[in-house]
Amino acid sequence: MTERTVSPVATVLTFAALVVLSLTTVGLSFLRMGPAGHLAVGLSIGALKAGLVALVFMHLVRSPGRTWLAAGLGLAWLSILVVLTLSDYLTRHVLPS
Amino acid sequence: MPAEPPVLEPQFATAEQQRSASVLGMWVFLATEVLLFGGIITAFLATRVFYPHEFERAAGRLNVLIGGINTVVLLASGLGMALAVHAAQKGQRWATLTWLGLTALLGLGFLGLKGYEYFADWRDGLVPRTDGFDPGDVTPGRLTLFMLFYFVLTGLHAVHLSVGLGLVSWLAVRVMRGELPRAGATVAEVVGLYWHFVDVVWIILLPVLYLSGHHEAADLHF
Asked: What is the pLDDT of residues B10-32, one digit of tens each?
């Protein structure tokens, strides 16, 4: 059987990284930025944290290809939803009706 | 601990295949959950395109202190769950139960703080009512739209966390009955995946709702 767990040490280190990233992203919300800037920075750090949780806490890093496929398809459909929707709403002022 | 043999369902050739199918099934379910939350967040982002000023103003009013503390509480519960799954796979009954207990306590702590935050939101007028806000120079109706998204998204997340608490309790009972290391370990793995997903949802809700506006140090209060 292939090894499918992540060591407790790696798990604790990941938790420490997650806490540091959380404090950083909350701290950045006190800086003056445009509204889009706050959202972009926050979502970038959020995506990084979500990736860490999926890879280490959810053992994706040690998972077979079929698990990556299920996780990847979830993200792929989410991308279609977000990108196609926002490509409409964000460009309405570019080509007035 | 009684050494319980794995119950092999007839459609599986081996215990490992059965375990692997359970884990894959949870991942596929979680992909549908991504689209549930993703759909509402996409609607939020699309609405925000039209009212960026109002949404930023409303986001800046949310209680970032409680939101931040709750983020760390939930991440700590995720650590507890990851360590519980690790202990379950090693067949360590008491370690599994201890970590599961810690996970559940932190999950309850999150819900408690969230409940207090809802109370504080109500007290401070952060509710989807046009007379709840001091609108300043922005349209109050658009602020209430933000608050609607806030309550729907955090409420749906709280429902998921409550389901997670139920699953953790059910898992703890199975572990107590001595179902480790076989069936119980797989159940722990699958429940763990769900718990971590609920963590991930909060990790995304934090920047989408709380951090998408500007906060002042004076706003740090309970």
From this structure: 999 998 899 999 999 999 999 99
In angstroms, rounded to a whole number, what is the distance separating the alpha carbons of residues B198 and B30?
10
Q: How many domains does chain A have?
A: 2
Count contacts between A and B (CB, < 8 Å). 157
From residue A1, give the alpha-carbon distance in Å to each of A81, B183, B193.
Answer: 38, 16, 20
d(CA B106, CA A46): 21
Per residue in A40-73, pLDDT (tens digit) is 999 999 999 999 999 999 999 999 999 999 999 9
Task: Tell if the CB–CB gap between A53 and B78 is shorter than 8 Å.
Answer: yes
- As given in the structure block, the two tokens for residue B203 are 């990790």
Do B56 and B213 touch, CB atoms closer than 8 A? Answer: yes
Q: C-alpha angle B31/B34/B39, rounded to 5°?
A: 135
Rounded to the nearest angstrom, the minimum Cα separation between A52 and chain B is 10
Q: Any idea what the Cα angle at residue B175 is, between residues B172 and A3, rounded to 5°?
A: 110
Same structural domain, A11 and A51: yes
> Is the dihedral angle over the CA atoms B145, B147, B150, B156 positive or is it negative?
negative
Share of chain B above pLDDT 70, in %: 93
Is B206–A36 a contact, with Cβ atoms under 8 angstroms apart? no
CATH number for domain B36-216, candidates 3.90.1300.10, 1.20.120.80, 2.60.40.1180, 3.40.50.2300: 1.20.120.80
CA distance B113 to B104: 14
CB atoms B45 and A11 under 8 Å: no
- Which of A8, A72, A1 shows the shortest CA–CA distance to B19? A1
Structural domain of A68: 64-97
